[in-house]
Specification:
alpha+beta, Immunoglobulin-like, 3 domains, 6-stranded mixed β-sheet, 5-stranded mixed β-sheet
């Protein structure tokens, strides 16, 4: 008896593992990957031609005349962990469209890794704008970013344990976005809800624990939103300050890119699913701290707040020629281990690494999983006399 033709979307109609494996085995893994590749190539050909891929039925209804996906009545609006790694609903976007204008005039700049100082007062009012923007991640590579405040990563937030954070997100993008603070303990179905274009959401929270925490867009598919640039760091100080140090924030992320169109490379959801990135970076720009090292003076204590925001890869953080006298695995000043050469920060996590810069020289810092280190997760700590 003949079988009906296979549709790639069938793999994503349910998110349970048994259903996925049953469907994949019925068609053969190679055929599934080939089908996925054909879909990606069709998307890329359409982008090169300046047109959107042909769609029918509900998928066509989910696009406006520019090819952007819009909100469809009845589609999921709140984050859901079941949607984090699978395209569960056909109306969610799976490519960051390069509609942010040409690459001309987009200046490359180094992201300042220094932890910004605390501001006065115990109530912190923070307002971010979610919007598309071209971002130069290398002098020769500009991407179609989904951003908080127009850059990747978003602004570094610095608060104290117990501060009141009053946060507002306004969405000026073309698809729904949201904000998930890992430092918050709050009902995500209301606070982290997706915000339609032109609207805002506000909520408040008090960080219960100190440490280095990620924030990110939590709108499904979360993989696509983080992978397109919607992430950042919130650093929470303990009530009693840690010892004086030169403090730096390093946020590791990956990029998965299509071929550039009009000088701008869009993010690729199929590539994100493959987990084979084109670039891995600290603070959004591959190898930027090799070209412009982080500088400290001999005798200074150096404190790195290291986050692995992913969307998928962890960071095995190591400084060549040095050891960490202290690594805080959780809320400082507790949870410390000492005399550490390398320690892995999991995707979605953050840790604090300290060393005493008592030897002058150039000390590379790197993700010691070198397949990622050599794709850009590397920099230099320059210790000067």
């Amino acid at each position: 008896m003949s079988q009906p033709p296979f549709r790639l979307s069938q793999l994503f109609e349910r998110t349970d593992r048994r259903s996925f494996l049953t469907r994949a085995s019925a068609m053969g893994v190679g055929a599934a990957l080939a089908a996925c590749g054909r879909g990606e190539r069709a998307e890329e050909r359409a982008e090169h031609a300046g047109t959107a891929p042909a769609t029918t039925g509900a998928s066509a209804a989910a696009q406006d005349t520019t090819g952007h996906h819009r909100v469809v009545p009845g589609s999921p609006q709140n984050p859901d962990s079941k949607l984090d790694t699978a395209l569960h609903h056909p109306h969610h976007p799976t490519s960051a469209t390069p509609s942010v204008g040409g690459a001309a005039g987009v200046a490359y700049h180094r992201f300042d890794p220094a932890l910004p100082p605390l501001t006065p007062g115990r109530t912190k009012q923070i307002h971010f704008i979610a919007r598309e923007a071209p971002v130069a991640i290398r002098p020769d590579v500009t991407i179609a970013g989904w951003t908080f405040d127009g850059d990747i990563p978003g602004p570094i937030v610095h608060v104290r344990q117990g501060d009141t954070v009053e946060f507002t997100l306004t969405n000026q993008g073309t698809v729904p976005h949201s904000m998930d603070f890992h430092a918050a303990q709050i009902d995500p179905r209301t606070a982290f809800k997706s915000v339609p274009t032109g609207q805002s959401v506000s909520y408040r929270f008090k960080p219960r624990y100190p440490g280095a925490f990620m924030y990110h867009c939590g709108t499904a598919p979360v993989l696509m939103h983080i992978g397109s640039g919607m992430f950042g760091a919130i650093i929470v100080d303990p009530p009693s300050p840690l010892p004086p140090a030169k403090e730096f924030v390093l946020i590791q992320n990956e990029y998965y890119l299509n071929a550039p169109v009009n000088g701008i490379a869009a993010s690729s959801y199929p590539k994100m699913l493959s987990t084979l990135p084109d670039y891995v970076a600290f603070n959004g720009r591959p190898s930027q701290y090799q070209d412009a090292p982080i500088r400290v003076k001999r005798g200074e204590r150096v404190r790195f707040y290291v986050l692995a925001v992913g969307p998928t890869a962890s960071c095995s953080f190591h400084v060549v020629g040095e050891q960490f006298d202290t690594v805080y695995l959780g809320a400082p000043p507790a949870n410390a281990i000492h005399g550490v050469q390398t320690f892995q920060v999991p995707a979605g996590g953050g840790m604090i690494f300290e060393l005493l810069a008592d030897v002058p020289g150039e000390f590379p810092f790197v993700n010691h999983a070198f397949g990622h280190g050599q794709k850009g997760a590397i920099g230099v700590l320059l210790v000067e006399e």
